[in-house]
Design brief:
CATH topology: TIM Barrel
InterPro entries: GH, Glyco_hydro_17, Glyco_hydro_17_plant
Number of strands: 11
Largest sheet: 9 strands, mixed, barrel
Family: Belongs to the glycosyl hydrolase 17 family.
Order of helices and strands: EEHEHEHHEHEHEHHEEHEHHE
Radius of gyration: 19 Å
Structural class: alpha/beta
Pfam families: Glyco_hydro_17
Signal peptide: 1-19
Strand order of the largest sheet: 1-10-7-6-5-4-3-2-11
Protein name: glucan endo-1,3-beta-D-glucosidase
Number of helices: 11
């Protein structure tokens, strides 16, 4: 299995406005060397580095509280194991919010909560997908009951367990039966609540499955042959990330939800692999991917789908996941 160096890239595909992305990080105390640094030290260092956006995959209340004196925008995640309880009883949702949100908000600038992560992936014994929409609704209703209406509630999906194909992007649709049973009702909920659709995109996985994809195309390298044309639309793509992002937007449009903001919650390239044939899973390529992605986003270039639909990217947060250890693969 490959060991990934992650980025989280949050997009909002909205009309008529655009902005340069801000740089942020995804921080988890569970990946820090024991003992983890004090929450106050984490928030202070992040603030000193002028990082304005942080994703907390395992949000500890003390860490959320530590960001109160800062202007950092927080993206919280709820683990899949909590979904059955959240779905079965609205009081559980209220209890979670009273522990993780109510004591700190709005001083701690919580802007987004993901209910579950890649629940459609068949890598666990228990299937959490039936609990996803009820849990999401209960959490939203609990926020309303508490008088909080500026925090988005959504769920995070994996590209490979959600989208049928990345090429051609114009032919992409959501996989069935999950598309109609889970994705479509969730998209309806997101539209009603003005929330974002969250998805993880890993070009490395698609590169590994298709030997015809040039490595430079996957790593944002400028080369005469680093492009692919959509045979249906004739649109030319110059990197794999944009092609996969367009596939997601196309699948949403096919269901009639092309105006919902999209968040690429995670992306990255593996810095190592456990299998001998994973020669492209290395630190050099991981660094090339991350630098290329940041360069691509800062250029303000729209994906071909955005151009065709007259949409532009209204806001982008780029969050790098790292550890609080000098000399490691993280940002600190």
């Amino acid at each position: 299995m490959a060991s990934f160096l992650f980025l989280s890239v949050l997009f909002s595909f909205l009309r008529f406005t655009s902005s340069i992305p801000s740089i942020g990080i995804a921080y988890s105390s569970t990946v820090s060397p024991p003992p983890p640094p004090l929450p106050a030290k984490v928030s202070s260092l992040i603030s000193t580095l002028k990082i304005t956006s942080v994703r907390l995959p395992d949000p500890d209340p003390s860490l959320i509280k530590a960001f109160a004196p800062t202007n950092t925008s927080l993206f919280l995640s709820i683990s899949n194991s909590h979904l059955p309880a959240l779905a079965s009883n609205g009081s559980v949702a209220l209890s979670w919010l009273r522990r993780h949100v109510l004591p700190f908000y709005p001083r701690s600038k919580i802007s987004l909560i993901s209910v579950g992560n890649t629940v459609l992936d068949s890598t666990t014994i228990q299937d959490f997908s039936p609990f996803l929409l009820p849990a999401t609704r209960n959490l939203h209703h609990a926020l309303q009951e508490l008088g909080i209406n500026k925090i988005q509630i959504s769920a995070t999906f994996s590209f490979f367990s959600t989208i049928t194909t990345a090429f051609p992007p114009s032919s992409a649709v959501f996989q069935q039966p999950a598309g109609d049973l889970i994705i479509k009702p969730l998209l309806q909920f997101l539209e009603q609540t003005n929330s974002s659709f969250l998805i993880n995109i890993y070009p490395y996985n698609l590169f590994r499955l298709n030997s015809e994809i040039p490595i430079g195309f996957a790593l944002f390298q400028d080369n005469l042959f680093n492009f692919r044309d959509d045979p249906v639309t004739g649109i030319r793509y110059f990197n794999l990330f944009a092609m996969m992002a367009d596939a997601v937007l196309t699948a949403m449009a096919a269901m009639g939800y092309q105006n919902i903001p999209v968040v690429v919650a995670e992306t990255g390239w593996p810095s190592g692999g456990s299998q001998a044939e994973e020669v492209e899973a290395n630190g050099v390529y991981a660094e090339m991917y991350l630098k290329g992605l940041v360069r691509h986003l800062k250029s303000g270039a729209a994906t071909p789908f955005e151009v065709r639909s007259c949409n532009t990217i209204e806001e982008r947060w780029i969050m790098v996941e790292g550890t609080m250890k000098e000399g490691g693969n993280g940002v600190f």
